């Protein structure tokens, strides 16, 4: 589009209220229609169809009219005539809400088994991010063209936490056509039982052995009793039920499950069933940080019998025991997607270096490190350092042109998203923003468009969209966007006052709240530094913040004072270890006190073995953020490894643990 055309569009949007030169003021300006939009949002949550229909006419011409119209139509979609649905799709053609309603309609067509209607409409669906819809689409491909869709169907089905109609349907259809076999179904049941999802396990068994699916509930309730009542399993299905029981028992007591497998069940199971069961026992022992976890994994005779989740836990257990040969074989057995994950590329490279017999293997390891080395994340930074390079802030990309900025400013989806966020509809705004940047066109926006969209969000101080959008660029890296520093005077002053690294504070805030000032978590943590009410009250007393009241926690300066004060107390309690202090900030101090017991480990190995996925990812991201923020603040080369150090039992038994620390 020519620049003169863009200017013409800007003028047009200014007259309609979608854009003005003072964009931030425009979005935040009060609008008499906002209250109607917010009331419709409440009516939609309550399922009040009549109220939605009554209010809709009042939203005509409002920036968020497409959202209001979507709510009204979605509430009665099940009974709406097709002509009315198509009228909505035509009215809002090209928008997020057109595709959002199409997504909902396609789900209904799939549930109704209206395959002709589904097949006709699915090619128009742009988002392509709904797994259940993809499963319905695979079913139609299998029915219409006899396409071989089994591998993709299994991958989608295995990834679901709970069973849904679409993926269950396509798997059942493929099983009937002998494209998916019994072992595929039993593996889904094993994965679900291991994930504490008995309904999903039962749904899988119901396809393969419907007369036995009720046994799954008994196994889940009391696996030990189930196994005690069964001395021998002759049929394939009975053996698999025993495997499910051993998997369930392993979650409670991996050592007891191991004893039963060794003494009674091992001889009755197939080699594949034994390998899988030993691996699950090893995984459960590894999650409890037991020293015998790698021993259980050693009983697995064939790594290719395992899925990637089990192989990943084998790597973690082997790392704790310095068993590099096992790390190498496990990473080599992973599937294509895991083999591209920087974490497993990094550990495979390290294992190659540790076990190398010749220069060729060392060169292969170096090549793996070079493939991932960058400032983008935890393992990418470690790879940089292993290659002898320090971590520095990259040069900024070429400045955005006026035309590139204008293109972002006139994007209706981005403008609607920012408006929704500004009036308190953050989830709705986030969804339209993500659609506009990621899903509207195949592959999403290119790097320059992403930088322009991120710049627009930064200018509006919508920091989470700024960060998340800039994070998606593939080649260009703009640290000013990816690592912004709102409230710099407050954060740096407070951190310096208590001798805390400001880069560490920013690294933590970026992960905690993405600088959303009024952020509130599902467990009640509030503000920039996501402080829990009880922790805030306790910390306020410790740091001498008199007359503190709970409602003050969302005050920016108070939140930073309490968050940094607590972080400093935690850091001191863990003898200056950033990885352990970070884990304590996320999961409470008692857990990392237990997790540090055992061998002295590289902190990267210790972090990779944190049992909780949320805390494991949190620690790695906060420390990676911190290193990049330090590069920005100091303009000096930085080291992630120096911040990690090593972790083991408490250095001095004479050092008192702060038992009052919440």
Description of the molecule:
Helix content is 65%, strand content 1%. Strands 1-2 form a two-stranded antiparallel sheet. The longest helix is centred in the last third of the chain and has 22 residues, at 613-634. The relative contact order is 0.06.
Distance from first to last alpha carbon:
57 Å
Mean of residue pLDDT?
Answer: 93
Q: What is the helix content? A: 55-70%
Low-pLDDT sequence parts: 1-28
Strand order in the largest sheet: 1-2
Strand-residue proportion? under 5%
Which geometry do the CA atoms define? globular
Strands, count? 2
The largest sheet is: 2 strands, antiparallel
Q: How would you classify the helix and strand content by structural class? A: mainly alpha
Number of helices: 40
Radius of gyration from the alpha-carbon trace, in angstroms: 28 Å
Write the SSE topology.
Blueprint: H1 3-16, H2 23-28, H3 34-46, H4 49-55, H5 65-75, H6 82-91, H7 96-111, H8 115-121, H9 131-145, H10 150-159, H11 165-176, H12 182-194, H13 198-208, H14 215-221, H15 223-228, H16 236-252, H17 254-265, H18 271-287, H19 293-298, H20 308-320, H21 324-333, H22 336-340, H23 342-355, H24 359-372, H25 378-386, H26 402-409, H27 412-422, H28 426-439, H29 447-459, H30 463-470, H31 479-482, H32 488-497, H33 502-512, H34 533-542, H35 556-573, H36 578-587, H37 590-595, E1 601-602, H38 603-608, H39 613-634, H40 640-644, E2 646-647
Antiparallel strand pairs: 1-2
Helix pairs in contact: 1-26, 3-4, 3-5, 5-7, 6-7, 7-8, 9-10, 9-11, 10-11, 12-13, 12-16, 13-14, 14-16, 16-17, 16-18, 17-18, 18-20, 20-21, 21-23, 23-24, 26-29, 27-28, 29-30, 32-35, 33-39, 34-35, 35-36, 36-39
